[in-house]
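Notes from the 1:1 (GR / supervisor)

We went over the backlog. Supervisor wanted to see one worked example end to end before approving the batch request, so GR pasted a single chain during the call. The sequence is below; no edits were made to it. Supervisor asked that the structure be written out right there so they could see what the output format looks like.
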Amino acid sequence: MSRWAANEQFEALVVSILRNTPLRQPSVLSAKSLRRMLQITEGITANIFHIINTLAIEAIEIGHEQITDEAIEKWEPEFDAEPPSHDAGTSSRQLPVTLALHTDELLSSWISRHADFNAVPPVLCFGIVFSIHRLHKQLTI
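Structure output shown during the call:
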């Protein structure tokens, strides 16, 4: 998969992710923040999802319910430029791992924790959960 560049497609991706982030306030980012996000993530899709999810969690925890330009400016990456690889025989744990649900935890937070723990893009975990839900719904009809 090719990396994202500073263009309208990257901006549309970020806007789409932000629009679907479960925050109570809309997150509108400046061009400077978008450039910083692109620089930090090096245009890697998994890293883009990671930074937005991490910033959304921080926004909820501090009560802002919004991702701001200031939050992006202050944010320090927790990942390497390249996403981790899970070669057979090199991982000390069996993937995927299922994490326990915390009391009063939102589904989106639980899915994000799974994605972070398993080093996969959150959208992949969302897709798996909703596919399982659809399958369960079809089987119970």
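Supervisor's comment: Residues 45-62 form the longest helix (18 residues).
Batch request approved.
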